[in-house]
Amino acid sequence: MGMSVTISAATERDAEQIFRLQYLCFQSEAALYGNYRIDPLVQSLDSVRAEVAADCVVVARLGDEVVGSVRGTVTEDGAAFIGKLCVHPRMQGHGIGARLLSAAEAALAEERGATTFRLRAGHRSEGNLRLYRRVGYQTVGTSKGEDGVPMIVLEKAAGTYAATA
């Protein structure tokens, strides 16, 4: 009998696995844009550890292995910024990304008072944009990442997070 994927809050012990997973997962994004200086690829392990300690970080586990993660922070105005959603390439297409997103939204709303969820995706990242739209996000604008990649900004109201599970 196979193991099932569990979703839970990250602990400091998960930081190194998140760091390595993020580096693996964002290679395809970097290739899509011809830019290997995107934030997830240049972030330091210490920075990931700091995010795990301070932010809302949710992981997907298969046994002891972290196979997915997502992070979120809430600003003073109640907007939660969600980012760095990634799922191990061998585990993609099984709903783990949607489950991670839903768990992060629930934690950000219930534990940190988020009233709106906001995220960004590269303008060529069709798979990511499809997922975000499927779970209720709507395009509200565009921006440019610090790495120069054109981004699409999406939002949804916090009250709708339960519908994404």
Strand adjacency order, main sheet: 1-2-3-4-5-7-6
Write down the oligomeric state: single chain
> Which percent range fits the helix content?
25-40%
The helix count comes to: 6
Total DSSP E strands: 7
What is the 3D form? globular
Question: H/E order of the elements?
Answer: EHHHHEEEHEHEE
Largest sheet: 7 strands, mixed
| Average residue pLDDT | 92
Note the beta-strand portion: 25-35%
Give start-end ranges of low-pLDDT stretches. Answer: none
- End-to-end Cα distance, whole Å, is 25 Å
Helix vs. strand class = alpha+beta
- Radius of gyration (Å): 15 Å
In short:
The chain is α+β, with helices and mostly antiparallel strands and 165 residues long. It has helices spanning 15-25, 27-33, 39-42, 45-54, 96-112, 126-134; strands at residues 5-9, 56-62, 65-74, 79-87, 116-122, 138-144, 150-157.
